[in-house]
Design goal:
By secondary structure, this protein is α/β, with parallel strands linked by helices. Helices cover about 20% and strands about 25% of the residues. The radius of gyration is 18 Å and the shape is globular. The chain binds zinc ion (2 copies).
């Protein structure tokens, strides 16, 4: 079974350019430097799964022509990964059903605090009309399944909080990560494709920077690595020119197959 992954967004929390038309070190003439907030779409023969609901969700689902989802995985509740949650209402209207959301216990309770209405049922008077987004919380821990697809989830150190990494077969997605514990590292062996946080070249307290990612690659030896969650200090052509041959920066709209 093959998996197709679409990069819906590979930008940091501000996106690139940041408000103010700030491009930092990025060449504004290269469309690959234009980055929406960080998200991917995972497709198998039967399933379409979204990871995170960014503030750019509407634009991302339009570009990828998404009309239904079999599930949404949430890595953590920082606003650049969750604040698009209201846009699921349009998919509820199209699908005529609630959408399954998968996240660990802590993330589900944080979503409940911020956006409690998404987990509430429609009032009976609505007669099934989705006047608000409706999501079904599915609490995950370690290995879980969406229909017949097995997904491994594991905790990552994201500086002052934790985030969740996901592995499906020989593909893993690790955004918003500062460090991995032994359990996480155990889940990152023998990868064919690894999409990983690479915020910038300078070290950061909550995110991996380029040198750290290179060290991980040296230890874990994934066949191919794609950098994501890049800020305006990472120019596409520059990082591509210095990265090893089996590594590349993501760009919005990039489709990868494993
Ligand atoms: Zn983020
Ligand atoms: Zn974050």
């Amino acid at each position: 079974m093959s998996i197709e992954i679409t990069i819906l967004g590979c930008g940091s929390s501000s996106g690139v350019p940041a408000i103010g038309n700030y491009w930092g070190k990025c060449n504004p003439d290269n469309p690959k430097n234009k980055r929406l907030r960080c998200s991917i779409l995972i497709k198998t023969k039967k399933l379409t799964i979204l990871v995170d609901s960014t503030p750019d969700l509407r634009q991302q689902l339009l570009s990828a022509n998404v009309k239904r989802l079999d599930g949404v995985l949430i890595t953590h509740t920082h606003s650049d990964h969750i604040n698009g949650i209201d846009d699921f209402r349009c998919l509820n209207l199209l699908m005529k059903k609630d959408i399954n959301l998968y996240a660990n216990k802590d993330i589900i309770s944080k979503i409940r605090e911020k956006f409690g209405y998404v987990f509430e049922s429609l009032v009976p008077e609505a007669n099934g009309f989705y006047y608000k987004p409706c999501l079904i919380p599915n609490e995950i821990s370690g290995l879980f399944k969406i229909k017949d697809l097995e997904i491994m989830s594991f905790e990552q150190n994201h500086g002052f909080t934790n985030s969740t990494g996901f592995r499906i077969k020989n593909f893993a997605y690790c955004t918003d990560v500062f460090d991995f514990d032994d359990n996480a590292l155990g889940n990152l062996k023998n990868l064919d494709l690894w999409i990983v946080d690479c915020l910038r070249f300078e070290p950061h307290k909550c995110h991996a920077h380029y040198e750290k990612v290179m060290q991980w690659i040296g230890d874990l030896k994934p066949k191919k690595t794609v950098f994501t969650h890049m800020n305006y200090d990472i120019d596409y052509d520059y990082i591509k020119s210095i990265a090893p041959r089996n590594c590349m920066p993501a760009y919005d709209g990039l489709i990868l197959k494993v």
